[in-house]
Amino acid sequence: VGSALRSGENGEYKIGLRSISAPVFTGGGTLKYVVSVLGMFRSVHSDEFAHAERAVVAAGQMLSAALGYQG
Predict the structure, then answer these.
(1) What spatial distance separates the first Cα and last Cα of the chain, rounded to whole Å?
(2) Average model confidence (pLDDT) for the chain?
(3) Can you give the pTM of this predicted structure?
(4) What is the rounded CA–CA span in Å between residue 28 and residue 48?
(5) Strand pairing of 17-25 and 4-6?
(6) Which are the contacts of 56, defined by CB distance < 8 A and separation ≥ 6?
(7) Dihedral over alpha carbons 28, 22, 56, 24 (to 10 degrees)
């Protein structure tokens, strides 16, 4: 399970508005859901962004495991 980030194309909509998403898989390995966080982050290189990214990826992994995914 990885993550994807979108930064509103670095402020395309609002300066600093960025989102992080992670996939959620079913027991059969099908991508079924996505968990996301949208927030104001100074930079994708900031500590707060890295922390949020780890939390979103962990949430995606936990949800996938709860659905029976073992990948």
Answers:
(1) 8
(2) 83
(3) 0.78
(4) 34
(5) antiparallel
(6) 3, 20, 21, 22, 35, 36, 37
(7) -20
Q: How far apart are CA 17 and CA 13, in angstroms?
A: 7
**Token pair of 32, please?**
């079924």
Q: Count CB atoms within 10 A of the CB of residue 61.
A: 19
For 36-62, how does the pLDDT look when each residue is reduced to its tens digit (9 = 90+)? 998 888 788 889 889 999 999 999 999
Block residue for tokens 């395309």 = 12
> CA separation (Å) from 28 to 24, 50, 63?
11, 30, 14
H or E stretch covering 23: strand 17-25
Specify which residues 70 forms β-bridges with: none
CA distances from 57 to 21, 25, 65 (A): 8, 12, 12
